[in-house]
Amino acid sequence: MKSDFTLSNGNRMPAVGLGTFRIKDNSIAAETVAAAIGAGYRHIDTAAIYENETGVGDGIRQSGINRSELFVTTKIWNEDLRSGQIKQAFEKSIERIGTEYVDLLLVHWPAGKYTEYWKQFEDLCKAGLAKNIGVSNFSIRMLEELLPVCEIKPAVNQVELHPYLTQKPLLKYCEEKEIAVTAWSGFMVGELLKNTRIIKISEKYGKTAAQVILRWNYQNGVINIPKSVHRERLAENISIFDFVMEPADMHSIDELNKNLRKGPDPENFDF
Ligand SMILES: NC(=O)c1ccc[n+]([C@@H]2O[C@H](COP(=O)([O-])OP(=O)(O)OC[C@H]3O[C@@H](n4cnc5c(N)ncnc54)[C@H](OP(=O)(O)O)[C@@H]3O)[C@@H](O)[C@H]2O)c1
C-alpha cells in the first residue's frame, strides 16, 4: 500500500482498505478482492455477519499476493459476543477465510459484557492469532468503561464517520488515547457523493467527490474502507495520495456536519 498509518503498538495499517459489506455472493467477493489487490489494495475489511469470509479468502489466494503483505480485518458478531464464544467464533472465521491469523479482530458492536470478554480478544492477540485487536461502534462512554480493564488496549475503533457525522469529540478522544479510527460508510453508501459542496471542491482539485471524502479522512488521520464492486471505482478510491487539500477546504467539509447517521446509534442499537 502506498500509505500506512502506524498503530499505538507500532504495527502498520494501510490507510485505505476495501470494505465488503453487502457483497454477499462469495464468488463476487472473491473477484472483487482479487481485483482490489491487483489495483494495489493491501487491506481488506470483512466480518462474520457479511457472510463473505470464504469469498474474501478465495480472492486473497487468487490475487497471488503473499498473505504476509496483506492486512485482513474481521469482526466477531453480536450473538457470539453476548454468549462470550469469542474464540470459537474466531476459529470459524479464520477457517472460512483460510488463514492462520487475522491482522485485526474487532468487537463488531458493543454487545454483551465487553469488559468481561475483552480478555478473550487479548488472549488471541497474545497467541499471535490476531495481530491487533480493536472495537467497532464504541462511544467515548464505552471506551471509558473498557480502557481501565485492558491489559492490551484496542488499537482501532471502527465507527460510522463521514462529512454529515464528523465525530470530532470521538476523534479527539481516540487521538488522546492513541486509538486509530476507521470510518465506515464514508460515502453514506453513496449519498454524500451528490453533495454540491463536495462536488465543487472535487472540481477544484480535478478529483472525484469520492476521492475528496477519502482524502479528507486521510488528512484527518482516519483510515478509510470504501466498498465497491466496480474496477474503475476500486482504482479511483485508492488514488488519493497525489493531492493535498487546503485547510480551508478541509474546514468547509467539516462544516457539513449535522450529526446525521446512516446506521444505528451504538448507544441504542437493537440487534
Ligand atoms: N463496523 C461496522 O459496524 C460497519 C458498518 C457498515 C459498514 N462497515 C464497513 O465499512 C465499509 C464501507 O461502508 P459501506 O459499504 O456501508 O458504504 P460506503 O463505502 O460508504 O459506500 C459504498 C457505496 O458507494 C458506492 N461507491 C463506492 N465507490 C464509489 C465511487 N468511487 N463512485 C461512486 N460510487 C461509489 C458503492 O457502489 P458499487 O459497489 O456499486 O461501486 C456502494 O454502493 C463496509 O463495506 C464495511 O466493510 C462497517
Short description:
This protein has about 270 residues and is an alpha/beta fold. The protein is built from 11 helices and 10 strands.
CATH superfamily: NADP-dependent oxidoreductase domain
What CATH architecture do you see? Alpha-Beta Barrel
Which percent band covers the strand fraction? Answer: 5-15%
The largest pleated sheet is described as: 8 strands, parallel
Q: How many β-strand runs?
A: 10
Termini separation:
35 Å
| Ligand catalogue | NADP nicotinamide-adenine-dinucleotide phosphate
Number of domains: 1
Order of helices and strands: EEEHEHEHHEHEHEHEHHEHH
CATH class placement:
Alpha Beta
Q: Could you name the CATH topology?
A: TIM Barrel
Structure commentary:
- Strands 3-4-5-6-7-8-9-10 form an 8-stranded parallel beta sheet. Strands 1-2 form a two-stranded antiparallel ribbon.
- It is of the alpha/beta class and 271 residues long.
- The protein is built from 11 helices and 10 strands.
- Strand 1 (4-6) and strand 2 (12-14) form a beta hairpin.
- The two termini are 35 Å apart.
- It has one domain (4-190, 222-229): TIM Barrel, CATH 3.20.20.100.
- The chain is 40% helix and 14% strand.
- Bound molecules: NADP nicotinamide-adenine-dinucleotide phosphate.
- NADP nicotinamide-adenine-dinucleotide phosphate binds at residues 19-21, 45, 108, 136-137, 158, 184-190, 193, 210, 225-230, 233, 236-237, 263.
Topology:
Blueprint: E1 4-6, E2 12-14, E3 18-19, H1 26-38, E4 43-45, H2 53-63, E5 71-76, H3 78-83, H4 86-97, E6 104-107, H5 114-126, E7 133-136, H6 140-146, E8 156-160, H7 168-176, E9 180-184, H8 196-205, H9 209-219, E10 223-224, H10 231-238, H11 247-254
Parallel strand pairs: 3-4, 4-5, 5-6, 6-7, 7-8, 8-9, 9-10
Antiparallel strand pairs: 1-2
Bound molecules: NADP nicotinamide-adenine-dinucleotide phosphate (NAP).
